[in-house]
Amino acid sequence: MFDRITLVRRQDVPWTARTATFLGGLGFGIALSCLLLVAAGVPTESLIDELVVQVFLSSDGLAQTVTAAAPLILVGLCSALATRVRFWNIGIEGQLWLGAIAAAAVGILDIGPEAIRVWLMMLAALAAGALWILPPLVLKSRFGVSETVLTLLLSNVGFLCVQHLLFGAWKDPNNGFPVSPQMGPAEQLARFGWGNVGMGTALALTIAVLAYVFIDRSRIGLQARAIGLNPTTARAAGLPVTATVALMVLLSGALAGLAGGVIVAGTEFRLTQYLGNNYTFSGITIGFLARTHPLGVIVAAFGVAGMFTAGSSLKVFYGLSDAVVVLIQGIVLMSLLSAQFFSTYRLSVARRGVA
Amino acid sequence: MIDFLVTWLASTPTFATPILLACIGLIVCERAGVLNLGAEGMMAVGAMAAVAVTLTGGNPWTGILAGIGAGALLGLVFGLAVVVLRADQILAGLAAVAIGLGAAGLIGKPYVHTTVTGIARLDIPGLSDLPVVGPILFAQDPFVYIAVALALLGWFYLMRTRAGLRLRATGEDPGAADVAGVDVQLTQLAAVIVSGAACGLAGAYLSVVASQVWVEGMVAGRGWIAIGLVIFARWSPPRAILGALIFGGADALTPRLQAVGADVPAYLMMMLPYLLTIAVLAVPALLRRGGNAEPASLGLPFLRQDRR
């Protein structure tokens, strides 16, 4: 197929070409998604209103978007850190579920003094997330087992842990739904009086900046970059590859866990069986959009959070299911990935008779 | 006790078949050098399309065909991205999962929780009524036997035909295959579409035959289990039968125990298939046994100009 056309890998990709393909891919994906929304029954004239005005320009919508961005920044950083050392963490939801369980456990069992309870919840969430990624990390780095399937399967196990608790020991007796009892006032992150925007958002932004300094300025960050470029060379150069990978991957898991904690203590105020839905794919999309750059993650997470906000209003007004957000993310990512072809390669058409 | 064992073993093939069907397709795909992580999404569209067509057209068999077609279509999208446009196979696979789950949820919304008439189990006079072996071996639905036949056919195709040899060569060393006159891209694209169709069939089986209803999220990680099983099967379809039966057995255990009123923590029991998959991936590596049967060029994009 296509024998007369040869593909040539570009030696240097100018930033203009990279930007153009990125914008092209993004634009194509968004255009396709808009067509899809119209086909699903959203009137063309209200697209701008639903996707831009209600999401970023109205006070309530913006508050909702900023709130949703907090856990998304954390899972985006989670994906970015692991990707930097070539570790495919596609079990973000698993670590997030465990973080949510750990945070809720501190709240439900009233562990520690009330003054620092909410921060104990955050610490527990960090630890639980790191713990949940430990088995895939060990199996991958010591025994060479593929981490993709391992991390993902542990997501399913994590979700079943949540269901086990919600349909059993932690079921709120005063509620018909399988949810945990509500967190007390000491077990909630402080809010600033604008929607649910509060300490969760501040925490996520702070961590993103710290992650930037860590990745870009610290020795470990530079080692991680060398490993990401070429693990074999990095090892040959005497860098502590195993230890650096382990640290980055554990941090990745911990941040996903923290995202779970932030959701429990910042927006849901209880453990539910829906709070972790769709974070794995969002995290990976955000990490990819940001090219694993921590400050880029903030921007990308904000964009994806807008999609969440738009999705919830489309659900209410047009009866579209939550799946529409997943579908649009998939389309946009596939489109971006495919568009990269045009900056990575150059087509050259062979003349007849010339091999 | 013996009754429990017989009903458990008799219900195992129903749970094993979708995993086996998907696994066979994924083996063909990976043997051609393409890692298809989109299985979960392809099963989801297959399951939804099969129920949608059965409900609107009224025939479970056309529903199954629609499921195969829907899986193949998503396979084509994924194939164009990774084979022709050389997109990253892991990320594109995840995107395919999202597209599959999203499209199934969006399009399938009107069909949720509506039961369909499925496909009857075989009733072979004499054989089906035998004690013990009758219900286990001779009273399954047709797809159980079709899946086993496909596994054997898949083995024959891969190991005993010229086309299978070419496909395997593509996965091991696409450069060498290219020089030998194999159209690498066409082979890989076809393999990806076949795996999509197989996953679509697996999904259609789940909804139309096994559950006779469609709900969002019903694939529940089975696509990922099938991907893990490919490694357990060491890229050989007949070995996948064994693997699928183990997982089917684990999957079938929970409803059986609940049916007899045993007081077991249901959600912990449901972890069994996932933990088992992790175990079969980890144990051979821990024992450092078995060598590496993975196709050498799995997951790498092929570019004729890249000299290696």
Automatic annotation (TrEMBL), chain A:
Chief location of this protein within or outside the cell: membrane
Annotated organism of origin: Zavarzinia aquatilis
NADP listed as a keyword: no
Record keyword Transmembrane present: yes
Coiled coil stretches, renumbered: none
Keyword list, A-Z: Cell membrane, Membrane, Transmembrane, Transmembrane helix
Location relative to the cell: Cell membrane
GO molecular function, one term: transmembrane transporter activity
Membrane topology: Multi-pass membrane protein
Name of the protein: ABC transporter permease
